[in-house]
Structure formats: C-alpha cells, structure tokens
C-alpha cells in the first residue's frame, strides 16, 4: 500500500465526516428555527393582553 492510496482514503473519510457534520448542523438549525418560530407570536399575544 503506497502513500497516495492512504491519503486518498483519509481525504474520503474527511469529506464523509464533513458532510455528516454539515447535515447534523443543518438538522439542528432547522429544529431551532421550528422551535423559535412560534415564540414571537406568543410574545405578541402576551403583550397584547
């Protein structure tokens, strides 16, 4: 096994982990947005009373 094959494999692993991290962060962001979206409406209703 030569060095080039090893570096290519490492690069592929790095790309996979990066894409996984991007996916996870996107899911977290979407969840936060979905959770935060109703909050301004609630504040508005509370202050309206």
- Please work out how many helical segments DSSP would assign: 2
Portion in beta strands: under 5%
Q: State the low-pLDDT regions, or none.
A: none
Biggest sheet, open or closed, and with what strands and sense? none
**Total number of strands:** 0
Please tell me how large the radius of gyration is: 22 Å
Structural class: mainly alpha
Shape: rod-shaped
Secondary-structure element pattern, one letter each: HH
User: Share of helix among residues?
Assistant: over 70%
Number of domains: 1
The first-to-last residue Cα distance is 73 Å
Overall mean pLDDT stands at 88
The quaternary structure here is single chain
Can you walk through the features of this model?
The chain has one domain. About 90% of the residues lie in helices and about 0% in strands. The protein has two helices and no strands. The radius of gyration is 22 Å and the shape is rod-shaped. The model has no long low-confidence stretch (mean pLDDT about 90).
List keywords for this structure.
49 residues, mainly alpha, 92% helix, 0% strand, rod-shaped
What's the helix and strand layout?
Blueprint: H1 3-36, H2 38-48
Quick take:
The protein is an all-alpha fold.
């Amino acid at each position: 096994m030569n060095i080039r094959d090893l570096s290519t494999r490492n690069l592929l692993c790095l790309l996979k982990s990066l894409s996984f991290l991007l996916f996870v962060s996107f899911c977290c962001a979407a969840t936060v947005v979905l959770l935060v979206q109703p909050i301004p409406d609630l504040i508005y209703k509370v202050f309206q009373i």
